Amino acid sequence: MNPAEWLHRTAHARPADPAIYCGEALVCDYAGFDRQAREIAGGLQARGLVVGDRVAVFLPNRVDYLPLLFGIWAMGGVAVPVNAKLHPREVAWIVENAGARLVVAQDPEALPNAGVSVPVIASVADLQGAPQDAPVAMAARDPAWIFYTSGTTGRPKGAVLTAGNLMAMSLSYLADVDEVRPEDAALYAAPLSHGAGLYALVHVLKGARHVVPESGGFDPAEIFALAAHHRNISMFAAPTMVKRMTAVAKAGGSRGAGVKTIVYGGGPMYVADIKEALALFGPVFVQIYGQGEAPMTITALSRGDIADTAHPDWDARLGSVGRAHSVAEVAVVDEAGTPLLPGEVGEIVVRGAAVMQGYLGNPEANAKALRGGWLWTGDMGRLSPEGYLTLHDRAKDLVVSGGSNIYPREVEEALLEHPRVAEVSVVGAPDPEWGEVVVAFVVCDGAVHEAELDAACAARIARFKTPKRYVFVNELPKNNYGKVLKTELRARLAAR
Ligand code: AMP
């Protein structure tokens, strides 16, 4: 089924119900939301786009984001949401890799210079055409969303999510995360290009309200004000966002009135942090563990589990990512794929209706990630006898900073572009505010200023990936095969 069909139905059933808000101001009701999506679908067709064509969405959170997504689907297209913080050159690579025929961007001028050769438009208004009557038919196997993850090779990979994947993800939200009612409101404080946008679908299905903060981003004071105004707010937040909300609420004497649900995930949540947040905001939290390849849908730690303070396993549960989603089978296996016993650490594998079809045009990555009918997540973990999954260190050397994933290789490649950088190795250092920060160990030929290294990054990668610290060394520790020993670098940072 076409996800836009959900919008179309809700609009038929409750046309005058409020749909999209900018801050406190109502932008449109469900009839208006649906009409705008159908007009965008008509506009895309008028530009010559056909079923299966891909449209890249390089936008920060805006009120036209959701109409655009549903408009792309209504005409049978495939959305390629791109993190708004990426560098234009990174976007250019994704646009090319995805074979996108059109890009909608906040700042369209920057993209052609960075190598984007397909049309780039700034305003969804440019897509307004004669409204399409109804969404075209889509099969469960038809691609609907290409989710670009960072790649360990330094290049992002496009996880192809089908209409069936999106629906399974949405329905399991209702089964395992939270109920959704028309009087609820989804607040988009995290990027719509990621989990927050995926969660929009179930809120459309149930005819809930959608609130885009005026700031377009994450501002705890703004969130508290909007929650108090709209009531029954649900939102997705990275653990670092939860931590900042706790700090701001404590300082300002707020207890998050109007917040119904905060779904957190995407990176590790420290037990002390969730306890503090729970004490302040009450039982509003649900945790999810997922990845672009199995979006938001591997495990969930329920509201009841998080709030069950009297349970003897409470601490262990808070330190876990919960139990398998209804639509997911989860196992911990050894390298051969043999399931391990409870308590034993191995790689986490998952299969089920929400798992991606595969990476777009990347047979090597597919051969690695999709084996024996399972998605190999690259995450290490262990299961308890009751089925609670606890993540261990990551198999990949991913750095998770402020909820964003950063692959060291990408940063290393940018730094190595500097002519006097001989060798470099990037690791994450624990940080109380960001979870982790990027630290680069650099071997230079001659004197190099930190500002030059910052500039090398600024020319190639997003700002949030730029190292927060540089450590200049004469050589990097290596093993017998010449492979840099990142564990030793991390140990050095820990010893400081
Ligand atoms: P992405 O594909 O960008 O969503 O990143 C997915 C990765 O983030 C996973 O493979 C995990 O390493 C990490 N991650 C996601 N959810 C959690 C969680 N609840 N706790 C700890 N790490 C998580």
Descriptive keywords:
Rossmann fold; GMP Synthetase, Chain A, domain 3; nine-stranded mixed β-sheet; five-stranded antiparallel β-sheet; 17 helices; 32% helix
How are the SSEs ordered, and which strands pair?
Blueprint (H helix, E strand, L loop, with lengths): L2 H11 L4 E5 L2 E5 H17 L7 E5 L6 H10 L3 E4 L6 H11 L3 E4 L4 H4 L6 E2 L21 E7 L7 E6 H15 L7 E3 L7 H4 L1 H6 L3 E4 L7 H11 L2 E5 L1 H14 L6 E7 L5 H11 L3 E7 L2 E8 L1 H5 L6 H5 L4 E2 L3 E6 L12 E7 L5 E2 L3 H7 E2 L2 E10 L5 E6 L4 E3 L2 E3 L1 H9 L4 E11 L3 E10 L5 H9 L10 E4 L13 H10 L1
Parallel strand pairs: 1-10, 3-4, 3-5, 5-6, 9-10, 9-11, 11-12, 12-13, 25-26
Antiparallel strand pairs: 1-2, 7-8, 8-18, 13-14, 14-15, 16-17, 17-20, 19-20, 20-21, 22-23, 24-25
Helix pairs in contact: 1-2, 1-3, 2-3, 10-11, 15-16
This protein binds adenosine monophosphate.
Description:
With 496 residues, this protein is an alpha/beta fold. It has 2 domains: 3-389, ANL, N-terminal domain (Rossmann fold, 3-Layer(aba) Sandwich), CATH 3.40.50.12780; 398-495, GMP Synthetase, Chain A, domain 3, CATH 3.30.300. The model has no long low-confidence stretch (mean pLDDT 94).
